[in-house]
UniProtKB/TrEMBL annotation:
Its cofactor is Zn(2+). Residues 71-433 form the Amidohydrolase-related domain. InterPro entries: Amidohydro-rel (IPR006680), Guanine_deaminase (IPR014311), Metal-dep_hydrolase_composite (IPR011059), Metal_Hydrolase (IPR032466), Metallo-dep_hydrolases (IPR051607). This is Guanine deaminase. GO terms for molecular function: guanine deaminase activity. It catalyses: guanine + H2O + H(+) = xanthine + NH4(+). The keyword Transmembrane does not apply. Pathway: Purine metabolism; guanine degradation; xanthine from guanine: step 1/1. The lineage of its organism: Bacteria, Pseudomonadati, Pseudomonadota, Betaproteobacteria, Burkholderiales.
Length: 442
């Protein structure tokens, strides 16, 4: 008679931070355990709470890793970025449209080559993990090979990632065009191949309204209706010139966002990048349809696109999250993204507390993707994607965080001064997938 060996239990002692609500709308949204314990088995969170309460519940033989002095929180979720743009990050151009013409399209051309696509996908995912990002919503290129390469690289690391083939059948170089029919067919094949395979999730990806014909948007909407648990991702209202262009291409539409609405592309699991120039009716429609906004501050500053209006979005109760938008975004780090998001809010005359920024990069993003309970928090049963943050990662951070009087000040210092150097270790489904060079497991 054979007995099944028990699943090994791993526990991690540190300060624990996660959320069960949005700090903008709830006074006790934050769950903080100064001396905490996170218990994981089989890649799943078993419990998270005070060390003194949970330690006695550990089974004999459970391994405890001591990360005292560090903060453990759910891995960051980046809801909008482009893996093929990794090698062209920090390329100068006066605004979105010339940047696309000069750098983006020629760079994306190379991703029909599966070996090139895989090499870049491997680097990209390792860079995300180094920065503490464990889930992302990722644009590939128009080539189906780029999607296979991305998901193969993600599967090799057992990561929960959403990605999709860019749909683009006009207003771009001939070498990057699909057709309405081939784009829909390729996307459907890729959905069947990858969606919900392991931790992979498919995102139907019309690049933005100007690069799709009405026929393509129509078929894309039909695909989104046929596969309602897939994601949809696109860009909307990023840049003033882009908005005028959309107006001239779709004169019947009430607004830029209305173009997507018309074709059935607003629904739960639809993620709209930027959302800078939306009006109140647009924001109301976002909330009504369960669509979500990916706020991309480093990209918006870099391209001079504009400032996201947190107050207007919050008034409509739109689901919000933060995103890097690499390669227009200038950093893979969600901490650096928070730093810039804070300044966007200030320039708009509003205020973004640090607790809210960490919420937006974890549970807020999970909610925007309809993945609450799966990622983004330490609720029992969630997948054990988490990071170990070092509040003393740099000499300056050490000096500043020593002088913090409360949690908000600590999180604020981490958001404003932190970057990849703060990520001591990253775990995906309970397995360590990154450890800071030079860091020792205590
Ligand atoms: N709009 C259409 N394509 C893109 C892109 O690749 N990056 C950004 N920032 N905006 C876009
Ligand atoms: Zn983008």
């Amino acid at each position: 008679m054979s007995t099944v060996p028990p699943t090994p239990v791993q526990a991690y002692r540190a300060s624990l931070l996660h959320f069960h609500a949005d700090p903008a709308f709830s006074l006790d949204a934050c769950l903080w355990h100064e001396d905490g314990l996170l218990i994981v088995a089989g890649g799943i969170v078993q419990a998270a709470g005070d060390y003194a309460r949970l330690f006695p519940t550990l089974p004999a033989g459970a391994q405890v890793t001591d990360y005292r002095g560090k903060v453990i929180m759910p891995g960051f979720i980046d809801t909008h970025l482009h893996f093929p743009q990794t090698d062209m990050i920090a390329s100068p151009a006066p605004g979105l449209l010339p940047w696309l013409e000069t750098y983006t399209f020629p760079t994306e051309r190379q991703f029909g080559d599966p070996a090139h696509a895989r090499e870049v996908a491997d680097f990209f995912l390792d860079e995300l993990l180094r920065c503490g990002t464990t889930t992302a919503m990722v644009y590939c290129t128009v080539h189906r090979e780029s999607v296979d390469a991305f998901f193969e690289a993600s599967e090799a690391r057992n990561l929960r990632m959403a990605a999709g083939k860019v749909l683009m059948d006009r207003n771009c170089p001939e070498f990057l065009r699909d057709t309405a029919e081939s784009g829909a067919r390729d996307s459907e094949d890729l959905i069947k191949k990858w969606h919900n395979k392991g931790r992979a999730m498919y995102a139907i990806t019309p690049r933005f309204a100007p690069t799709s014909t009405e026929a393509q948007l129509q078929l894309t909407g039909e695909l989104a209706a046929a596969y309602p648990d897939t994601f949809i991702q696109t860009h909307v209202s990023e840049n003033a010139d882009e908005c005028s262009w959309v107006k001239s291409l779709f004169p019947e539409a009430r607004s830029y966002l209305d173009v997507y609405d018309h074709y059935g592309l607003m629904r739960e699991r639809a993620m709209f990048g930027h959302c800078i120039w939306l009006d109140e009716r647009d924001f109301a429609r976002m909330a009504e349809t369960g669509s979500a906004a990916a706020i991309c501050p480093t990209s918006n500053f870099f391209l001079g696109s504009g400032l996201f209006d947190f107050e207007k979005a919050d008034a409509a109760r739109v689901s919000l999250s933060l995103a890097t938008d690499v390669g227009a975004g200038t950093s893979f780090s969600m901490l650096q993204t928070m730093n810039e998001a804070y300044k966007v809010a200030r320039l708009k005359g509003s205020y973004l507390p640090a607790a809210r920024m960490f919420y937006l990069a974890t549970l807020g993003a999970a909610r925007s993707m309809q993945l609450e309970g799966t990622i983004g928090s330490f609720v029992a049963g969630a997948e054990a994607d988490f990071i170990v943050l070092d509040p003393k990662a740099t000499p300056l951070l050490a000096r500043r965080t020593e002088r913090c009087n409360n949690l908000e000040e600590l999180l604020f210092a981490l958001a404003l001064l932190g970057d990849d150097r703060c990520i001591r270790a990253t775990f995906a489904a309970g397995r360590k997938v990154h450890e800071c060079a030079g860091a020792m497991t205590l």
